[in-house]
Amino acid sequence: ITAETDSVYQGVSGDISLADSGRKKPLTISNKLGWSDTVIWNPYGDEGMGFDQFVCVESAQASSSVVLQPMEYWTGAMDVVP
Predict the structure, then answer these.
(1) Residues 60, 63: Cα–Cα separation, whole Å
(2) C-alpha separations of 9 from 13, 48, 53, 59, 72 in Å
(3) What span, in angstroms and rounded, lies between the C-alpha atoms of 56 and 62?
(4) b/e map 48-82, b = 16+ CB within 10 Å
(5) pLDDT digits 0-9 by tens, 69-78
(6) Alpha-carbon 9 to chain mean position
(7) Is the separation of the CB atoms in 2 and 53 below 8 Å?
(8) Is the pTM of this model over 0.85?
């Protein structure tokens, strides 16, 4: 990681694989329900958070709003599979 990263990948959902040279197998972030996007970010420059070894890949609903009427609900579900 050589620079600050904070990106929204609109319309990217489903299963996302995260390859890590320190692991034998990639992690899978499995978007199960409700999420339309994927966000990738890191705390570049923050030594306390291990900026040079930390990246976050997460399911998100970032590119469009979910509008709820009274008594309605929204559910998002994801799994991290080692």
Answers:
(1) 8
(2) 9, 27, 21, 10, 27
(3) 15
(4) eeeeeeeeebbbbeeeeeeeeeeeeeeeeebeeee
(5) 999 999 999 9
(6) 9
(7) no
(8) no
